[in-house]
């Protein structure tokens, strides 16, 4: 089984997919041509599931960074004989600049080794294993090139030195001295096409430099955050850009599947899809950290993917494929042992069929936030928005799975009711733009009923807090969304008491849990525990800042952001005992939370 720490990985991205590279220079995860395509390299989830490594032959020390303003990775190895730098990039089309970044990528992974001092020898090992390691393809090695045959991921490799063929792998050894550079290129092409030639070794450095300029030009066009947390926000904005499927505007929750919420546990999910649940907060982060254009693209994707899903005879899905796909049926890959033995490994996500009533509020809030940029709403959009509000008014009294996608019995989740209130409140505000579809009085009355029900049945006198579900005593970090969405003011005594209850009763070493699994009585339908959630910790930061406690918020912000790896990347969860990153990686919602929390602090201090 693989034992590489999740924090040891860096992400490369090109607008359609992503690769994960570890500190040894091994690409252990790569799905082409899309985020949700079957992996060509999947050593992340099983030692024999494929990789491509460029690693010094002896002992070495490592330091890493992203080339400033980019997601191009530099790994510097220092050995007994010298120092060399490995640069890795997923290429973008030559000359692509600005907002076009990520359109029509060539699906090419570029790797360049540069000698900085003395001499360093590298072992190169190319082990393609399509379909998550299930396929052992025919690998034809011809001098300085190799090509795969068989499986859904045909690809071609070009090397600066002769390759050795052996055991379904291509290997080589390369040396670089100070001032020397040498490059490798791996190119994917559809199986029905004859693969074009990858970039020549002598041109790899130039292509990487062009990709660097493409990223920097995008950031220059999107550098709109100027608060004190600017550098941290800019990095997280690049991560969100890297997790965006440029053809549609979808933002995936993460580029990976089945990285566990607890080592050895079963809470292992496929996150390579776009969640409506994340929409409003993701939009705010995109607007703050990058550019309104990216946000509008995301609105367009969400509304088009969900179109027609709010009618009386159907249910709005909580998530969609990056191309707008609806059927994301889940299956297990029994041939993979999982990261550190965490089984099962899953592809697809059956949560797509769950009822989660919060999605109506997420979509309507997204439409409301961008009403000015969306211009006059087309009648079909007016009808769709009104349908969302009607569905929230009709269904808010139903139990659901909640935003944490519990797989146990349905409950009356307080957060779901709050988001139904958001749906109705935003619909009332949008009513002048909804033409003849507006039902302002009906929506307003339903909104008031939801508000009253939450105050009466969602509040626990014993806890002095809003709780996970109606008439319960369990805490849930999702109730921190109340002030963030304006359900109650952040200074309201009940909100302040809830914030303190969460900070006191739902934290481990200062970091916030979603809920306590034991207290929930296995209501989530799963065995085992989980780590603290970076997103929930950032929600607490935002709530504290909005309540007028920026210093306390800053201290918690620093604690959470300090758990990021050396490249600034955050996973979904943090082990409170060890500080180790857990869950799918890097996690979009963690970086969304970071951006929004940073903005909340900077606003509270009057510097944004």
Give the tags.
608 residues; alpha+beta; 15-stranded antiparallel sheet; three-stranded antiparallel sheet; 28 strands; 30% helix
What does this structure look like?
The chain is α+β, with helices and mostly antiparallel strands and 608 residues long. It has a domain at 6-219: Beta-galactosidase, Chain A, domain 5, CATH 2.70.98. Helix content is 30%, strand content 20%. It has a 15-stranded antiparallel sheet that branches. Strands 26-27-28 form a 3-stranded antiparallel sheet. The chain has a two-stranded antiparallel ribbon with strand order 16-17. A hairpin with a 3-residue loop joins strand 7 (73-78) and strand 8. Helix 5 (358-369) runs antiparallel to helix 7 (379-395). The mean pLDDT is 92. Its cofactor is phosphate. It catalyses: alpha,alpha-trehalose + H2O = alpha-D-glucose + beta-D-glucose. InterPro entries: 6-hairpin_glycosidase_sf (IPR008928), 6hp_glycosidase-like_sf (IPR012341), GH15-like (IPR011613), Trehalase-like_N (IPR045582).
